[in-house]
Amino acid sequence: MAVVVEDDEDIRGLLEAVLLQSGFEVHPTGSGVSGVELVAQRDPDLVTLDLGLPDIDGFEVARRIRRTSDAHIVMLTARTDEIDTVLGLETGADDFLTKPFSPRELRARVEAIMRRRVRDRTAMHAASVRTRPDAAPVGAGEQEPDVAAAPGTAGNHEPVGGLRLNGLVLDPPAFSVRVDDGEIAVTPTEFTLLHSILAGGRTVRTKTSLVRRLRDEDADSGTFVSEADERSVEVHVGNLRRKLGDNAKAPRWIETVRGVGYRAAPAS
Ligand code: CA
């Protein structure tokens, strides 16, 4: 399910048409306040969010949505300043699409996002159920697990298929990150990055490969990665560190390899 928050009628219609074609049930609205309400009511997987809205701006809408939802937020912006991108990422957006965009571009982006979400949940979930005979298996073509149901069950099952490092437990089936037994709320993009970096252990994940991971491409796909793309990864990692309480200078989990990328800190 998707929520479209866009005050321009033509663009709203275009977004709706493309998302319907991609198989989404779509709930459109023209204002920020009603967008926040719709997301809280509908619990969508995807939100497209216009930056310039008549009531509250897209940054504030993203902030409010993040209090209740882990939907993938794609911010639509006519402005391309890096400051907007950074601010947007800090408020909880996952992706940006600059206007004008073609339906094809939007469809490709949305499909990559949904593949990534399904893969993040089901692939790792399938890995963990092999050692959890009590859990129901999840078929590859099945809907991703209901995210809204996850928090209620997160506290009482052992993350067999998860990752552990220095007091942090990353549990893909529950989509949860815990540090010293306290739950940390992260966005889907932050979750994917943290999982990629920690799963790599002491092997460095380059920023380029992380950008491609977020696009659901192979690390060596050879597709173009811009400086702005790499900069978004830096911002996401910075946000992650802040949420985890990690320190770039004396990292407990994410170590920076200057000029290259990131890797997991050594176990201590
Ligand atoms: Ca607008």
Structural account:
By secondary structure, this protein is of the alpha/beta class. The protein has two domains: 2-114, 3-Layer(aba) Sandwich (Rossmann fold); 163-264, Arc Repressor Mutant, subunit A. Helices cover 43% and strands 18% of the residues. It contains nine helices and twelve strands. It has helices at residues 9-21, 32-42, 58-68, 82-91, 103-129, 150-154, 188-199, 207-214, 227-244; strands spanning 2-5, 26-29, 46-50, 72-77, 95-98, 163-165, 168-171, 176-179, 182-184, 205-206, 254-257, 261-264. The strands form three sheets. A five-stranded parallel sheet has the order 2-1-3-4-5, sandwiched between helices. Strands 6-7-8-9 form a four-stranded antiparallel sheet. Strand 11 (254-257) and strand 12 form a beta hairpin. Helix 4 runs parallel beside helix 9 (227-244). The N and C termini lie far apart (42 Å). 35% of the residues are buried. The structure holds calcium ion (CA). Residues 7-8, 50, 52-53 line the site of calcium ion.
